[in-house]
Request: fold
Amino acid sequence: MSNGYRVAVVGATGVVGTTMLQLLRERSFPASEIVPFATERSAGRELDGGLIVRALNDEADLRGFDIALFSAGGGTSKEWAPRFVEAGATVIDNSSAWRRDPAIPLVVSEVNPHALERHRGLIANPNCSTMQLLVALAPIHRRAGLERLVVSTYQSVSGTGKKAIDELDGQTRADLDGADAPAPSVYPEPIAFNVIGAAGNFADGDDHTDEERKMIFETRKILEDESIGIAVTCVRVPVRVCHSEAVNLQTREPLSAEEARSLLADAPGVVVEDVPTPLRAAGRDEVFVGRIRGDESHPRGLSLWVVSDNLRKGAATNAVQIAEILVERGLLARRDSVAA
Reply:
């Protein structure tokens, strides 16, 4: 449409970037033009839908974009997001580069869209595991308050990228054929028919992975409550798409399993099922919650099982939903510089 918005997608050839492009079409985002950006080696490549990839380099023309969706890694975001903001775009970034900055809103569209009111041209998308967790837990927190969370994640390989999907497929195929599996290159151990009990990377001197630290910090920032006790173990499992989470929580006020189930059944973006699975959740934008039950070891304890597509709601869908909210609420004009 000629009177729509010019949208840049940075990292357009990656698994999340391609999903962003797909969702912009699926959700009929009012774009007059969508321009994909990627590395030099992808420049000139034609994507599904006929879009031609442009190189993200010093010769790239960044002028005239209303929105830039980023999914290209923290280093690229640190360098290029401020440049797009300076050129007039509002950036929605999917990397971890800006999430800890107190001046940058960290937004889950169903949970804290009010944070967009204070954006200065740059908005951060949370980690995919945090994303689905908070869509499920925010209604409970608003009703009864969250005192403590114990979360174990079961994260799919697509959260690491296409090379990880290829590694899982190659190892699985070789094992089933009775051949020697290719040596792992993405993960420290083979992922096919295996479970790796530490998803993410360890910083020097830290016994938590960066995935675990992200969930702890981001949960408190998004819910605006630093008092919540949070324990997280992030695990990588041989699943292509969709993260799963076993959640045990303690509320500040009493809340029965039946009340929680009713609350979640009415919550935006949530589907309540008996036992959600990654295969059923793949390709969907909702967060699926099941196994809702009381914790017999604690009078205010509940346990949940949470599953969601990490490429869609965990990343691309939320970014597009944020863009939709910015348009609906007339918030795109807030483009003060964040370059400093």
About this structure: The chain has a mean pLDDT of 95. The longest strand covers residues 146-155. The chain has two domains: 5-126+316-328, 129-310.
